[in-house]
Amino acid sequence: MLTYRDADHAARTIESDGGDDAHTLSAKIRHEVQHATQALADRTHRAEALLRDYAGHARDDVKQAGRRATRVVRANPLPTALLALGAGMILAAFLVPKHNA
What's the half-sphere exposure (Cβ side, CA atoms, 13 Å) at 7? Predict the structure, then answer.
């Protein structure tokens, strides 16, 4: 991230030669802006690469958890079905409105 210190350094570099004409000053400003833009682009690309890496790891973890769950269900079909039935009954008890007659 570009910091205040980076901007301050650029400003001090530009103002260090107080006797420059407008053309030279413009060139210095252009150079500092290009430098700042490049630094920002580099950091953006690094952040993008990190996010893609994290997303890839997360996708792999979810796939692995799904495969593990499938193995557990296949190895224990009856207990899994009973567990699902119990969870469904608990959810129904909370979600289905009760009618008082």
Answer: 5
Mean pLDDT confidence for 82-95: 94
Q: By residue range, what is the domain housing residue 59? A: 4-95
User: The pTM is what?
Assistant: 0.49
48 CB neighbour count, 10 Å cutoff: 10
Cα separations (Å) of 14 from 21, 28, 70, 87? 12, 6, 64, 69
Which tens digits make up the pLDDT trace of 14-33?
A: 666 665 677 777 787 788 88
Give the number of domains in the chain.
Answer: 1
Residue 25 within any structural domain of the chain: yes
What distance in Å separates the CA atoms of residue 73 and residue 81, rounded to the nearest whole number?
A: 8
Q: What angle do CA 88, 89, 92 make, to 5 degrees?
A: 85
